Amino acid sequence: MNHAFPCGTLPLDFVGTLRARRNAEPMEKLASPELLDDWFLESGMLDLASRASEADLAIALELREAIYCLVAARIEGRPMPAEAVAEVNLQAAGLPVTVRLGPDGATRTGTAVQGLAALAREAVEIIGGDEAALLRECARPECTQVYLDRSRGHRRDWCAMRTCGNRVKAAAYRARQHSTKS
Fold first, then answer.
1. Residues with Cβ within 8 Å of residue 118, at least 6 apart in sequence
2. pLDDT-based confidence at residue 14 (cuts at 50, 70, 90)
3. In this predicted model, what pLDDT tens digit does every residue of 32-62 receive, in sequence order?
4. CA angle, corner 10, sides to 5 and 11, nearest 5?
5. Cα-flanking dihedrals φ and ψ of residue 45, to 5°?
């Protein structure tokens, strides 16, 4: 598996395909059209590879950055940048993924652009709806994953306990152990 889905919200997990955004050299998880195809398959959005092209990849990266820009604006309480709004709306207007019922159940097929349209539509629902108030960015300095904080007190600090939460808690424990030995 090439991709991670820590927050369970596909448009926000898609934003996370650029890891460690604040680092001097972030890690690009969508470095090729094949990796974009893998993302769609691993996320369950498509059941068959879309055969993405370089042009599809360029559109995907633009959409990803537009979604991140809008999420960051909502988190920080700033107005949403017009260019990012236009990009997300443009992609959201695209054709939907094809869903067909067959003897083995439902099958989802489509092009990369159709998959991106589905992501854009879901992003519009999140960013433009009530859930926008739940948008957060992981507090672990090396992580920039965005997520919806659906915890009871809305005080969750990291994207996922099994990754960033465990790392932060383990580092704090090691620091406490080191300070008591000194």
1. 45, 96, 97
2. very high
3. 999 999 999 999 999 999 999 999 999 999 9
4. 120
5. -70, -35
